[in-house]
Request: fold
Amino acid sequence: MTKHDLINITKEFTASYSHTPLTAEMQALLGTDDMCFFDEPLVGFGSADDELFEQLKAPEAVGPQFIPPKEWLENAKSVISIFIPYSEAVKKANNTYPKAEIAPHYVHAKNYTVPFINKLVEKLCLEINKKGYSTVVPSSETARLKSAMAVFEGRKAYTSPWSERHIAYICGLGSFGIHKGIITEKGALGRFISIVTDMPLEADERHYSELYEYCTMCGACGRKCPAEAITTTEGKDKVKCSVFVDSTKVKYAPLYGCAKCMCGVPCAKGRPKKR
Ligand code: SF4
Ligand code: SF4
Reply:
């Protein structure tokens, strides 16, 4: 099995799920019974030996609770990072709604993606396992995630021992924006997932060397934010953001979401042009 095979499986599986089933209530909200929620995915590959993984233990990166690939899986050789971008229709809807109103298209896409992604990684792991290699999906290792978080009680929300966005950065998918998303060639709005494996796969080249290299500091994400949680001088205020995102449950409970900062901005469709 090659990288090309894994990319193709990911693309085909995503295409087959891009039109998700809609409840009658959601059909009424969206005004349609058929909508494409996902764009074609991006897949990046990293080496489990990449020295950047150790650097994620720094307090200014993920933190000392970060667990590197070889601690998730002994003899790990590769890390696969997958980005499922939301469709242009989802981004457009969220951008078109008034500043403090979140489009149901995005809320549905965000929440529906969880079961879809679980199925996708299950499929990829199965294919890799069939070739005799082991796999671990850190974000599914609930017991280890919880025990790592418990050590940092009081800061539970921000102390995960794994960070999909940092993994995507290491695997060459893109660099950070000040909205704290990863700016990929398909924008920043979507979901990331990753797999650690002992299957040898050649690492992709990173076309950047700085954490925020693709961000032009244009400030557009801050102007879009209904919570005023982003500035070019201070970056993103996670608490302000999280309070606003929680408030969207009033309308959509049990669903929720925002991501206004990633729609209708220069990095919404790809790497922005330098100013
Ligand atoms: S909108 Fe501008 S400042 Fe904000 S993350 Fe994108 S490029 Fe950076
Ligand atoms: S998700 Fe919403 S509240 Fe949070 S920073 Fe982005 S625009 Fe602001």
